[in-house]
Amino acid sequence: MSIDVSQRVAQIRTAEYGKDVRENLAGGIEDIADDVNDFETTSTQQQAQFEVSINSRQTNLENVFNQEIANQSVENPSNMETVAARTDNVNNTTYNTIGQRLDNQASHLADVVLVTWFGAKCDGITDNTIAFKNAFATGKEVIIPNTNPDSFYKISEVLIITNNVVGVGLPKIKMFPVNPQDTVNNAGKSQIFRAVNQINSKIKISGTYCIGNWDGISTITEHSHIIAVCASDNVEICNNIFETPQGDCVYVGAYTFDDTIKIKNTSDNPNIHDNIFINPYRCSVALVSSENPKIKDNQISKNNTFVSAIDIEPNNNDGTYIKNIEIENNIFNINNVITSILIVNKSANSIKDVKIKSNTFNTTGYGIRASDQSSNANLGNVEIYDNKYNGNNISSGFININCISDFIDIKNNKDIGIGATWFITQSNNINVEQNTWKSLDGVTDRLNWLLIGESPIIRVSKNDIYNCDNIDGALRIVGYDTTITKNVDITENNFYNVKRAIGIDNRTDNTLFQIEKLQIVDNSIDNYFDGIHLACNILDLIIKNQYKGIGVPVEYNSFFSYGTIASPEFYNISNDIYATAMPTSGTYTKGQVVKNINPVETGTSGNMYIVFGWICITGGTPGTWRALKILTGN
């Protein structure tokens, strides 16, 4: 780019006045700017034309390349197709030569076998047991192709696996046992797949549709599993459909079901995900002995009463245990089953660190039941987060938990339906936080939201509770006379449309239990019959809440005592109470205020006022009250 400024320079040099100098300087700058802008515009246009030209030439070249390939034949060969064949579009890999790509594929094929190579037929008639066994005996990855979508591969004995099993096209494999028996080992012969003592390999079973031999009636055995993982680590089971086994869809433990001696006492790191489990006789997944099992993103349906959908249960006194369990994002569609997830410890063995998160329970039974039946305090550290429970049976609720030794944390779950009470008993260090419990519209006869019994440390906070018509209290805490609860903290909960918000009492009418410190603070209680009912011995008491509705804020009976003196005058109570009139029933302490929820201006001109509320000047039942009037200035 060249800019001629000589004329402007001459004018500046000969100018006699400063005004002329400034004018020529400004004009010169404008000339330069104009030339620069013209240059940039021209350059941009040329760049755009260049790009259009390049793109057009590239497109034309690709069209010619593709046309050459399309026109290729034996009589008219083309080198372009040879070049294109170097690229594996499935794996997005380009090789330097076709030979390199073919060598790579040949190397992979050398590590796999197809069951059809050994004579297997997907016709529903041929017994493919021998063909499958011969394929698995190679020790290579076994591919099972779906050669007949309208039929299945028939087998009659268990298949022992040592490498991956890959179904292509979701092939059906169906068990027809020759002679099903009721003993454990004989029933094991009717399993479909079994991995035994596989601790160094990473076996993956995927893409199959396996059908067990349960007819929906028989109870002859419970050990004919679809997959038995026995003393084997790092087994992944994914993207399968498992249907109607006369046992579990997936068993994870150490027992080998034959004379094989197990080389370890657990099956660690199983990863069971993205499967569909349909109505097993026993369980969809049974964990008997394992560290770090993961059960995630499965669809689980079960329609019979035996055991549960997921069973976490070590054997009795054989050294089995379960640790670090994750059950996450599964969908349970369960009918006629006591519980979706069952956690049971029966012996000196242990179950530790259980995380149950983001599951959906559509069920007529409980969502989760857990108990330590060993009396050895070996069931501990349970976290239940972000689950949704759609209960449709008034006799079963979201959780029923007993004897958690370390801590139990229940947070941000939603229970919306007609299900029954959440039970937590004889457990240490309970935290129930940020949950929602709501009856369906028109349902008013649900039982308590939460019943906690005989537990030393209890914290219930920031929960939203709707529509509970139970006289024992939406939240009920109970104990026996021998029970000593150290600390109960009930804070920042919202109780909407409840008959009684909180009931704290003994299990029977003639016993007491003791709470060392009880704090009921900053709760909102709406539309109550009575807000809080006390019938126990409390050494340190703080009650400070907000009440809206009708009824008595705090009620107690003859079993209540505050330290050594049973008198309401000794309550440390400072409550926000709302009503439409001065209290005429209930027990109140001197200084308590009931706020007027419907104030109306009244009086004569110049002396208009509203009734802000009423204050108790003498404690009693209901005590002596006076109106709190505030002049409005009108």
UniProtKB/TrEMBL annotation:
SMART domains: PbH1. InterPro entries: PbH1, Pectin_lyas_fold, Pectin_lyase_fold/virulence. This is Right handed beta helix domain-containing protein. It comes from Clostridium kluyveri.
